[in-house]
Every structure is written in C-alpha cells, then in structure tokens.
Amino acid sequence: MEMLPEVEPELEEAELQEEEAEQEEEEGGEDGGLSELRELEETLAKVQIAPSAAQLLDPKAEADSSKLPVSYRENSAKEKLLQTMADNFNCQYSYLYPDRTPLLLCPLNECGVQKFVSTTLRPTLLPYPEIYHWQGCASFISDFLSLQPLDPPVDLPKKLCSPTWTLRTQKGTCFEFSTLLCSLLLGAGYNAYCVSGYAMKEMCLLNQNRQECPLLKPQVKKAVVQQKEEKTKYTVKPPHDLYSRFEKRQEQKRQEEARVALLSQQQEAQRLQEERERPPPDPLLGLRVHCWVLVLSGNREVPENFFIDPLAGQSYPTTSEKFLGIESIWNHQNYWVNMQDCRFGCTEMTFDLGNPVKWEYLLRGSTSHNILLNSDTKTQNDQEDEEEEDEETEEVFEMPPSWVSRIHISQEDMESRYPGGTKLIQYRQATVEKFAPYLMKDGLITRLTTYNDLDCTHPNTVTEWYKHRHDHLDERELEKATGLTTEHFRPGRSYALKCHRYVTLIPETERQMDFYSRFRVDDLASRVETPSEMTETFENRPDFLYHRQVVYDKQVLSFEPAENAKQVRRPIKKVVEKFHRDHSKAASEDVAKRVFLLSEDQIQVTYHLEEDRSIPAWRNFIKPRDWQNTFTPQLASSFQVDPRDEPDKELFLYEALMALMAEEKNVLTGIQDSEEEVRAILDARQQEESGITLQISIYDTARNEKARMYIEELKRLAEEELLNKEEKELDILAPFLAKLGNPASLTREQVQQLVADCLAEMKQRLVDRANLIQARFEKETQELQQKQQWYQKNQLTMTQEDEDAYLAYCSDAMFRIHVVKLRLNRHKDKAPQMYLALRDKLRRDPRLIQHLW
After folding, report:
1. Element housing 290 (H / E)
2. C-alpha atoms less than 13 angstroms from C-alpha of 620 in its C-beta half-sphere
3. DSSP 3-state assignment of 338?
4. Where is this region: Disordered (predicted)?
5. Backbone torsions φ then ψ of 353, nearest 5 degrees
6. Mind listing the pLDDT tens digit for each residue in 402-425?
7. Which member of 35, 416, 552, 633 lies 3.0 to 4.6 Å from 436 by CB, making a disulfide possible if both were Cys?
C-alpha cells in the first residue's frame, strides 16, 4: 500500500508523454507518414527467415544434405516400424523404471532424421592390414578424429552422425567415435558392441595428464648370471676370515636400520606426491555419460572380454574401475538394456546377453538368445525346449540393413592420420607429438619429451622417431642435463652402424658405436672411444678374437701454424687383445691374451688355462732394437706349466717373435683403419644432418618427382595422339560448305558442285605436290651438273682434299636425287588411289549420299 503513491506519478508522466507524441505525429502530416513508411519497408527488408534446427546443428550438413543418399534423408517402411517398436519399448521401460536415465534409441542424424542406433552401425572390412586387428583400428580412430565433449556432460546426445560423416569431418563425440570403431571391428570379424554408460571424468574428457606414457620404455633390470665355479680337488683354499662376528652383526643391524629409514622416507615422499597428484573431487562423479566399445570373447581368437576406449585407443579389462556403469549396449543386430546393479561399477557384471534376467533385449530372434552359452552347459530340458521352439516357428522382426553408405578411408587419410597432420598428447611428466609421414622435412613422425616436474617445465630427455630417412636414422634420444645424444639406425647404412652415443661430433672424444656385426667383414660389434682409450668388441670371428683395447699415450702439442699443421695421430702406448678358446689346439698353445707394449718394445703372450691347472703358460719377448744383431735368449722369457716339458728352443722363440712382430704391424694397420673409419662416420653424419633427404618409393607417384613426370609425359603423349586422331578425322567439306553459307540442307545441284569442287581441289593438290617433287629433282640434277662442269675445268689444279670433297658431294647428291626420284614415282602410284579414296568417302557421306544415288 505504501508503494502506490510512488507509482501513480510515473504512470501520469508516461501518459502525458504518449499524448505529446500523438500530437506531434498529427502535426507531421503526410510527409511524416511517407518517411515512416520508408523506414518500415527498410526494416522489413532486413528481416530474414531463421534457419531450421538442422542448420543450427550443422550448417554444412544442411547445405550438403541434398548430395547425400536417400537413405540419409528418409526412413524406409521397415525403419519406421522399428522406430515404432523402439518408442513402445521406451514407454514400457520408462513406466517400469521411472528413476533410470532414458535410453538412446533413435537420435537425429546429420540430416535431422531420426535413425535407430543399431542401423547406424555399418560393418566394413577395409583393405589395410593395420585395420584388420583391433589395436590398429583403435589407434587409427583415436589419432584420426578430434573429440567434441558432450554438452551437457550428463545428458545423452540428441544427434548421432553416421560413420561416413565422422570420417569426413574428422571430429565427433564419444558416441560417434564408438560407432565408427565398432563398425570397423564388426567388419574385421570381432564380436563388438557399443556401450552407453558412465565413466570417470578423465576418460570422458580425454585427460591423460595422470597416465603414464605408453612410449616410455620400462627399465628392465638385467639379471646377472653368476657362473658356478667348478670345485676341483686341487683348488686353493680361501684365507681364513679374521673379522669379528660381533662387528659384522652390528654392521648388518646399522644397514638394516638405514634401509628401513630410507624406505620410510620413500613411502612418505610417495604419499605426498600421490596427494599432490590426486585430482579434486568430481561433483558429477557417476553421472558423466560416456560411450565405449565392448569386445566379447570367441571370435578372432579373443580369449576374454575387454573394453576399448575409442578416445585414447586403449584396452581395459571389464573389471576396470574407470567404468562406473552401463545403461545399454547394441550392435548391428539387436539392442540390450542392462538390468544388473551398477553400484560397484562394472566389476561384478556379467555379459551373458542370452540371460533375459540380466539383459533385456529389444528384438526377439536368433540374435537375442544363447549368444555366450556353450552347448556343454545346456541341460536336456533346454535342448527339448529348443526343439519345441524350432517346431513352432514364428515370424520374427529382423533388424533393417544399415542406412549408412560403405565406409571408405583413402590412402591419403591413412598416411596423414592426424587432423592437420599433427597431434599433441599430454601425459604424466611427458608430452607426445605425432606427425604425419613426409610432413616434417627431417622425416620426424613422433617426439617424446619427458620432464622432471609435474608441471612439465623442466625437460629431462627428448626422444624422436624418424621414418623414410635416407641416412637410415630411426631414433634419436637427447639427455638435456648431460647433452648425451643416442642415435639408432636401421640396417643398410654404410659401415653397418647400428647405434651411436656421443656428446659432440668432434673426433677423439668420448663416444660409443654399435654395429650390425653380421653385415661387417671384420665382425665388429661395438667400439667405445675416449681421449685416452679405444675398445673394440667382436663377435664370431674365425680367429676367435673378441676384445681389443688400445691405450694412447700423451700427445705432444704442436706449435706449427694451423695452415701448415698436419693431422697428428695419437701415439699408441699399449694394445691388448683377447681371444676365445680354440678347442682344435692345446690349451698351452692357444693364445688367450696378447699385449703389445709399444712404448717399452715388449710383447706379452698369455695362453689359455688348462683344465687341471691353476696358472696359465706365458711368454714375454723384447723386440731387438738393432736388427743387425742376432737373436739372443735374453730377449725371450717363458713359463711352462708342466715342468716335464722340454724348454723352447732358440729357433722356435725367434720364429715366434718374428710372427708376433708381423702381427703387431697388422694390428697397428687395423687400428689406423678404425680411426679413419670413425672420422669418416663423423664427417658423413655432419653432411647428412646439414642436408637431410627423405626416401620416396617409386610407387608413390604423389611425391616421387620422376614417377610423376613419367606419368605426365604418358598423359601428354596420349593427348597428342588423340588430337592427331581428331585432326585426321576433320570434316573435309567444311571449307566448301562455308562458301555456301553452311546451309541446313543441300540441293542436288549444290551436292554435285561440292563433289566436283572437292575432287578438283584434291586433284590440284596432287598435281602441285608432283610438281614440287619434280622441281626438287630438277634442282638437285642441275646442281650436280654444275658441280661436274666445275670439276672438269679445275681437275688438273685440284688437290687430293678437293677431289675427296668433290667425290663425297657427288655421292650425297646422287643419294638425294635417288630419294627424290623414288618419292616422285611413289606419289605417281598413290595419287590415283588417294583420288579414288576421296571420291568413295564423298559418296559415303550421309549429307551427300541421298543426292548421289
């Protein structure tokens, strides 16, 4: 009541303003009315009809709906009957279970037409080996499509596009992901189903920040195999242990306490890290709608049931805690509603679709009974009931065929694979970047970056995978902290290089090279190099060499200018070689270790240990510095295990020393070749990295320039041949008809005149051609006669060179005259034939034939 006095003055002011406006309009007269009329027309012209609901959903879909097949835009009679049955089923379901979420039965497709979800599946087998297995299917779908989250996340989608439309746009919801994946799996022979249910927030939104990257290689600890030493009767007894047992127990006790303290610290740190990584509570837990794929065992040798998340392309067991419940599942033959309790997720669910107590089916038929029941588990009563049902055959409604066109994925889409050719995936302390082949100039297809922190700000290692590289580079790993680079190569590279670990490409620095030993002549397996050493390992050599170590001495610095300085090799101090056992020789004669002490001019040889001995035999030699002196026994010393053996004779020791000195030269030559090989590999790597080239298959005409130019040349030749053929088939009457004005019909007199003119023109052309050839014949003959007259006048004063030139000219002139004469005779023979052929062609012309006969 108190607010009425405040409202009445405002109403009175509004009424006064309206009266004043009416008076002004009346005073405006006709001019004001015309202006208002124009304003009204302009306003109405701006008004446009609002787009339909289908256009609002996807303008491109409405624009292209006319180009889609009729099955996309209309429903057949069988589909309409199916929708009626689905509506009836949904009404009964809503009445019996009013608290449950509505079912996804007949959503709209891209054309705005309701389609049953089972008919949206289109089983298709594609001609790609990768798509034939579920791992390849799931990986391709997750890479090729982009996710459109459900909005709102707790409601079922009102629209479900076809798999062909999803492939065309390369985007879709989780339901469209699953529909496409299930269609490919069904075509490949899997017993696959689309599942509508609920899942965790991270799975619904494709958030993989808390998942471990699958590309991270698990660190497998290599078990050290300890070889048991064979105890013999004459082994040396170990020395007595003189340590105090009390001190040992105290030390073990302290180590145990330290281990327990360290373990508790690690557990506490792990607990704190888990609390930090634990996501905040989801207010929509258990309500987020998600769709995934269920694969049942049986077909394609699948041992047990499992789920596939189409968004990430990963498989999970049916007891996974990431799936919180199931409402319904369907395939291309039927639709089932889950009647089991999902309070504990999917851990206790069974997928016996033939059990109507746990799964309620939509269509009654052969697809709704006994899907997973084995014949061994059926009782005799069940078999009798089945026989009675077979006798009483009933007409059942079968699922209509899919309204979707056949799924097609081009070779270009299989290669590009990712939307735009690239894709970035964020994992726990790692990021993965994927690239399409040939997109990056260096052939990069995958880059994995690991970080030291959860915020992914401090990179630890960067691993890159390559493809189609001309240098056969397959993988490269870079450790950011140390700068250590590890490169892996495929077979086929020069020097059979397999792996290269280095910090810098400068020679004589720390590095390790592994090789494909089976592709090398020297059977080299690895080479480890440092500034002071070089160690080589061999495999399966015929001389049983498996280890070679080169120790370098300190290098003397050179003070020469850089321009005049030559490449100085590192001086070798010592070379150690080790050999495997050669059972064709006696142990005392089989070399186990050979040491060349170059700085001391000595050679040490150690032989293999005999089975019943504890000390091996050995020989030491001192190289004589003065070759003029004879060999003396003081230059050699040896040890023989068996004292009963006769001592080595001086001649034998001399020959052994000479053989070892010759072998030393070969070893030094091999070391020099190894050093040159390292420099060649480093130079080649620098050149390859400066100018990277990719290998292109000869069958890839889109990228292979030579193949593309060859195909274009073939097309050009074919077009030229076609043009020549068309030119040959030109209308010979066209110029003569143009003189007559190109009449629609010809009279008898005009036809006779055309034929006469055409034959006369042909006759004149033949005569002109004969005259032209005759003129050429006369010209050549006249020139030859003039040359002969010149020769008769100057015959006495001509040199031998002039005479040879005259004879060559006469020979060429006679040849040309002979050719022209042949052409003239051939023309005379063919001219009548050409004239008669033209006359016959004119008589067969449909425009002239009625007046010539």
Report:
1. strand 289-296
2. 7
3. strand
4. 1-40, 373-397
5. -70, -10
6. 999 999 999 888 888 898 889 999
7. 416
